[in-house]
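User:
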Amino acid sequence: MRSTTARLIIVIAAMLIAIIIAVQVHWLNRTYAYERNEFNTSVLKAIRGVYEDLPLLYNSSIPLDSLAEKHTESTFLFRIDSIPPRDSLLTHLSTELEDFHVFTDYKVAVYNAGQRKYLYQDYVSADATKNNMDNVARLPEIKRNFNYVHIYFPNRNKYIIGEMKNWIYASVALLVVLISFSFAIYYFLKQKFLMEIQKDFINNVTHEFSTPLSVIDLSVDGLEKPSILTQPEKYEKYLMAIKYQSEYLKKHIGNLVSTVVAGNYHFGLLKSPVVPNNLLRKAVAQLEPLLAKKNGMVDWDIEINNYIIQADEENLYLALFNIINNAIKYSALPKIIIATSVRDNKYCISIKDNGAGIASSQIKNIFKKFYRVQNGNIHNVKGLGLGLYFAKKVIDGHKGNIIVNSIPEIGTEFRIEFPVNNV
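Assistant: Predicted structure:
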């Protein structure tokens, strides 16, 4: 499972979780609307019951819809012709509200239209609250040309939400499960990705080191034969093979160790006066056997003054070596163009090849640790996927910049720029 697939799975899982949460919020909203309507209906039924219990109207045939009024979400008014006794109204109203399962505090007041004032106000606590204190300010006068009973529910929203507690608990539990599941998926994919990186790395190391070791082993066997003393050409060939493969292994092991150190600690550079032209010539000389094996060539277009910059010679050499080595390895018949110049307060190094090239979609990844371009038969070339990562570390450490221009099947240019005054 590659990183692209892992990202796709994470995106799909995130979308599904978002949809589930959206549906849950939708149903919570619908449940709240339902409970709100149930509350209003229950209050109106309780008011109808009070009309049936007490002689409040001279004409009892008047429809309830024209008598009861929901003034606000928490306020109800219902018309009366005669003023009921205080205790009788409170007793019957509380009984009717309980019968219709409205268990929340309320304040009740009786308004006299002739006197234009409330005759009395009382606060009634629900049994569940155990609160008998009138903690609600006096009800404001709502001017009407008739007598009415004013009922106000100060904790209406809290009561309705309390009626939804099972839905809320279920939603919270679902949210916790979804979050835990999301972390589990993320952790699993992360571990899967790291395991694949480790597997690829081990496979690459095995492939990278097995061939040089086999060549060294065969060369040693050849040198152990008594007849080799009479064959100086073969003797020299075996020695050169051992030397080249040893240098090859040494450089890759050095790159690996340096990369691990650079990736975990501050990348320190020991700067001194360095001639980049000399480092480039040295790298090409070291790669001459590989270049000759592929009948390749290097064209030079370097500045003639052998400009000196302040740089870490060893690390900068390894970075340039890695880039030139890639230019040779990924070209069937290498033709490398190496150019240097100084302009606009920058020292510029250009390394062009005529190799397989890199797709534009992969250029942004080539400097990542252990990344190897997946294009055509490019994995037939040996490599750990560390060379360009290490090179980028070195160039960044020098406050430089590396630019890649590439056309598949045509070639690639690595352009390195160092700020002359800051190197």
